[in-house]
Structure formats: C-alpha cells, structure tokens
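[Meeting: bench + compute handoff]

Bench side (C.D.) handed over the final construct sequence. Compute side (W.E.) agreed to return the predicted structure before the next meeting so the bench team could plan truncations. Sequence as handed over:
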Amino acid sequence: MAQQPWFSGYADVTVDPPYDLAGPGLPESRNVTLAFVVADSSQPCAPSWGNAYSLDAARDALNLEQRISALKSSGGAIAVSFGGSVNTELAVACQDPAQLQAAYRSVVERYSPSTIDFDIEGDALLNGPAGERRAEAVAALQKEKDGWGGGLDVWLTLPASPRGLTDDGIAVVDQMLAAGVDLAGVNIMTMNYGSSRGPSQSMLDAAVAAADSTHDQLSISYQRVGTNLSSQEIWSKMGLTPMIGVNDLPDEVFGLDAASGLNSFAVQKGIQRVSMWSLNRDRECAAAAADGQASHVCSGVQQEPGEFARVLARGFEGRLR
C-alpha cells in the first residue's frame, strides 16, 4: 500500500530554546524531521548533532530521547536528517567506508527512524568521492535494515534553482541510484535562489519552476539506470521544502500566500512530501531584526504561531512509517 503524502517540518535540534516536539504547534500528522546529524570535528567518524552535542550529550543536555518518546507516545513520528549547510556531513569527514556505515547505523539504531534524509549542499555537494562513500554506505545500511524486518526510507534533500537541480545535485542522485539505493524521493530546497530568480519572478513562481525542472531531471536519472517512471510516479518521488518567512538572501521572503500556493501545487501534482525550514521559526518575531538577517527562532513575517506548518500541511495527513 502506497504511503499517504506527508508533511514533516525540520526542527533544528541545537537551537535554543529547544523545539517542543510534543507541543500543540504541530499539524495533525505530527511528523518532525530532526536536523542535523554531522561529523564531530574532533572525531571524523563520530556522529554529532550540529557538531555541538554527541549523541550521548544530546540525551543528557537536551533530553532528546525523552522528547522523541513523548512525541511518539502522542502519535507522532520522526525522521533524522544528516548534513545541512553549516557543518561537515559524515561522508565528507569519514574516509573509512566501514566506519561511515557504522556511524549511520548507530544513529538509526539509536532513534529508530523509518525515514532518513541527506541534506547535501555546499562543499558536500561538490565532493564526488564523499558522494560515492555515502551512496555505498546507505545502500548497505538499507539492505541491513530490510534484513532486520523493517524498511528504511531514504530521501535526498538538494538545493534547486528555477532551472532545477545543479549538475552536482544530479550527480548525487545518480550516485545513489547506481549504488542500488531505493530512493523514497528527492526533496528540493525552494529557497535562497539569488540571481537565478528573475526580477519579476515571485518566490512561488520560482518554486514551481524549480519543481517542474527537477521533475524532468529525475525522469532522466531513472532512465539512466534502466527505470522508466511515468510523470505521476516521478511527482510521487518528490518533496518541496521552502524556508518560511525571511530567507538568508536579501529580498527573498516566502510569505503565507506563497505557502498556500505551493501547497496547492503540491496537492495537484501528487507530490509525496512537503517540509519547511523550520519548525523553530514558525512564529512571529518579537521585534524586527536590526540587521535584517533571518532568525533561527522566528519567521520575520506577521503570522500566528504554527501557521506556516498548518498551511503547508493541508492535504498531507500521512504519518511517517
């Protein structure tokens, strides 16, 4: 039976104050994608949360396991995301394939997510050898998990412009498919376009253009490994993730109207996943930032608490397995 389309906002585990995983602000589906597991700068093959907390330290200082348990007891579920834009993804830092696989495995065993996500951007996106290591480790881990009697859904999260994925992003997809990873889907970051967004192109228009272009690129990637998927099958292997409110680049603001439009597009196309960066930011700021920079804890636009999540989650009531 196909999984019902789902919404899962990212929660930055290391942001203070910690996001209330079991709180009232989540949509009905109650899925949360925890971000980001990266390499520990002092131990390249050791997973950490944001290079700030070891897994044990996150348990002790952030009560992370207890908070995850509370979320699950309320009917929620988690995914775990590796990578992100700031620190070093494990496959880049960890040169030993067996230790890399063990690092990924330790996270999966500890938190028991049904879904893992690889947010590959920045230097990690340009590192071909790391991509090969990552793909081989993930393929092996996925086969292990199947052997244990439980599947492991694997998503790639990649930057996109209105022209779709970059060549390096396509290469990451191709590496995963060539290694035999059964990709649940490719999730594009509809944010921070810079000069790739035309002067008259709205943030919503840019997101739709990025999705349309990525759809065509993914069809070709699957054809390269001998898999011919229909247009609808490709849409069902895609996800969309905007950065809500004020983005990292000047003059890029993704408002509630854009969120509603993107949600309608996703429902119409049969997209599998909608996420957002981030649940921590899904509230109005107490005061405007003096420097105009995006905040880690608020959106920078006028809104009700949790409003972006509610708008983006419409029609995406599925729960993570």
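W.E. noted at the follow-up: The chain has one domain: 6-312. C.D. will use this when planning the next construct.
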